Amino acid sequence: MSDAHGEYHDGMVAMLELIWGESFMAPGGPALVRKTLQGLKLDNARVLDIGSGLGGGDLVLAELGANVVGIDIDPGLIRRAERLIARKGRASQVQFELVTPGPLPFPDGAFDLVYSSGAFTQIADKRAIFAEVKRVLRPGGWLAAYDWMKGDAAFGEEMAYFFKLEGLTYAMETPEAHRRVLEELGFGEIRVATDEGWYRRKSREEYEQMKGPLHPRMIELLGAEQAAHFVENWRAMTVVLDRGDLNPGRYRARKPHA
Q1: Which residues lie closer than 8 Å to 43 by C-beta, 6 or more apart?
Q2: Helix, strand or coil for residue 234?
Q3: Which band of pLDDT confidence, cut at 50, 70 and 90, is reported for residue 221?
Q4: Distances (CA, A) of 239 to 35, 68, 158, 195, 200
Q5: Closest CA to 147 of 201, 74, 185, 199
Q6: pTM given for the model
């Protein structure tokens, strides 16, 4: 969730880390990163992380043996991620680049894996970004992503209210729409699946924590008014998750060898 320039102010970053863990701007933390990448060989792999955010995913990738380039369009997030990686002693494996929306600034076949968590959901032109992913992958390379997708029904008032509270840019598509675009672009071995209600359940736990034991810390970090805003934001999110309007999941696909 880090592809919206200027939308992640300090208060929001502090709030997301409080809920999702240090250096993470998407749910699940290191465990979800590892699950998204399960079965892929990462030792000495060259990996591109699209929407690297605070760098938590890149740290996990480095721990798994990868050499990582993380890209984001928010300079503040890049600086935070660089500090994290330096503090953890992984600077030899991970570098970050500030980019602008559009074609990826890398040559054809530069990466063994393109990874992303929560960034593609904010990119409207899925065909264009997935075509760029395919271009920068070597033959046989993989795309692996966790994403916030949508259900089949048209958005209603509940989703509009959630978007208003979030204050972020979303461009969600259904899991089937993702599959269709990947197929049309010539990817193979495509797997697209929802998370089977994992984050629907997890978000309720987070909401209860925010109303209870985390609330004093939230007020300390954000002030009472903004803390109340985030609690209501999470309540609204549980509603759209329960309705199936928000439909998180994972997908992966492989660039053919020839």
Answers
A1: 64, 65, 66
A2: helix
A3: confident
A4: 26, 36, 7, 17, 9
A5: 199
A6: 0.93
Q: What backbone torsions phi and psi does residue 169 show, to the nearest 5 degrees?
A: -90, 125
Backbone torsions φ then ψ of 153, nearest 5 degrees: -75, 155
Find out whether 36 and 26 touch, Cβ atoms under 8 Å: no
Which pairing describes strands 111-117 and 46-50: parallel, antiparallel, or unpaired? parallel
- Span 10-196+246-254: which CATH code? 3.40.50.150
Question: Cα(19)–Cα(25) distance, rounded to whole angstroms?
Answer: 9
Q: What's the sign of the alpha-carbon dihedral 179, 181, 184, 188?
A: negative
CB atoms within 10 A of CB 156: 11
Helix (H) or strand (E) holding 104: none
Whole-angstrom CA distances from 211 to 80, 98, 169, 231 are 28, 36, 26, 7
Phi-psi domain of 118 (left: phi exceeds 0; alpha: psi -120 through 50; beta: other): left
pLDDT in tens, 142-177: 999 999 999 999 999 999 999 999 888 899 999 999
Average pLDDT, the chain: 94
Give the residue extent of every domain in the chain.
10-196+246-254
Instruction: Quick: pLDDT tens for 63-98.
Output: 999 999 999 999 999 999 999 999 999 999 999 999
